[in-house]
Design a protein that fits this description.
single chain; 74 residues; mainly alpha; 434 Repressor (Amino-terminal Domain); two-stranded antiparallel ribbon; 4 helices; 8% strand
């Protein structure tokens, strides 16, 4: 399964917040922010810090995307 952080980027746009501002408010590293930008996995701790900084839930910033065809009946 893959993850998508499109919801996070939309939320930042809606709140007129830059990625750098998010990084500083949440106290996450630039490496973690880069992973988010590439839709790569990050630790739950990073996600919790972001949710705390944005006052939201994990479902508000990410989606789990099933791999196409993996769970389809044959």
């Amino acid at each position: 399964m893959k993850v998508s952080y499109k919801k996070l980027w939309k939320l930042l746009i809606d709140r007129d917040m830059s990625r750098t501002e998010l990084r500083l408010r949440a106290g996450i590293s630039s490496v973690s922010l880069a992973k988010l930008g590439k839709n790569e996995g990050v630790t739950t701790n990073v996600l919790v810090k972001i949710c705390s900084a944005l006052d939201c839930n994990i479902g508000d910033i990410m989606d789990v995307v099933p791999e196409r065809g993996k769970y389809e009946k044959k």
